Amino acid sequence: MSATAQGKQVVSRLTAAIRHFLPDIVYGSNDGIVTTFAVVCGVVGADLSSRVVLILGFANLVADGFSMGASNFLARRSYADPVDRADGREAARHGSATTLGFVFAGIVPLVAYVVAVPEGGRFTVAVALTAFSLFTVGAARSFVTLQGWVRSGGEMLAVGAAAAAVAFAVGAVAAALTGS
After folding, report:
1. How far apart are CA 132 and CA 66, in angstroms?
2. pTM
């Protein structure tokens, strides 16, 4: 087999794998970005320190990322019909794809709190990075859904923005009710 043919075969397998696992990656990425950013918004809404953002953000990233992957594994093993039920190895691959998507995308809202960004600008940078990430991951959905990338990205951005607004409001209300 020629090098060109081998290259095409590798690209074909990679494309097939991406299409197969993209829903899991998008699912994990969306939840990772949204839940981690919700933590950031809740902490900022409650007017707590950047240290609290990092502690709660990373705790969420690790625990919820594992939980999402484990839940995907269990869901794929929960079909009544054995024909539809994934074997343990395949379910683990899907769970791993979800976990990796969650952790790699979910770290984005925390970047502004890890790198040297002035204290007063961290939340603004986190908002911008999160919006960009939500749109980008949403646009990637178009490879599977065959919908336009702008529509797919915009849809995910809108859902994530709504979740962030709710988290910010809850943080602000909780802070007001507790006198913080």
Report:
1. 24
2. 0.82
